[in-house]
Structures are given as C-alpha cells and as structure tokens.
Write a structure and sequence with these properties.
mainly alpha; 72% helix; 50 residues
Length: 50
C-alpha cells in the first residue's frame, strides 16, 4: 500500500506539530464524567419534583 504524500499518516503530523495525545485525553477525561454527573443530577431532580 502506498502512502499519499498529500495526506501523511496522523503520527507524522503529530510529530511535526509536537502534539501529545495524552494532553488532549486529559480534557476528555474531565468533560465526560462532569457531563454525565450533571445529566444524572438533573434527572434525579426531575424525578423528585414530579
């Protein structure tokens, strides 16, 4: 399989821009539980107020 020079593999792009996936993952690991907690809180409040 030949690689298209106009569309290099992602890891090459990450190396060129010095992007560390662990830095981006920390944001996702924070947002997901916070969002779920908020949805659960609103769901419980709705059930208790009905």
């Amino acid at each position: 399989m030949t690689e298209n020079p106009e569309n290099p593999p992602r890891h090459i792009i990450q190396e060129r821009v010095k992007y560390d996936p662990a830095i981006g993952a920390s944001g996702r690991l924070t947002v997901i539980p916070d969002s779920l907690g908020f949805v659960i809180l609103l769901g419980l409040a709705t059930l208790l107020l009905l």
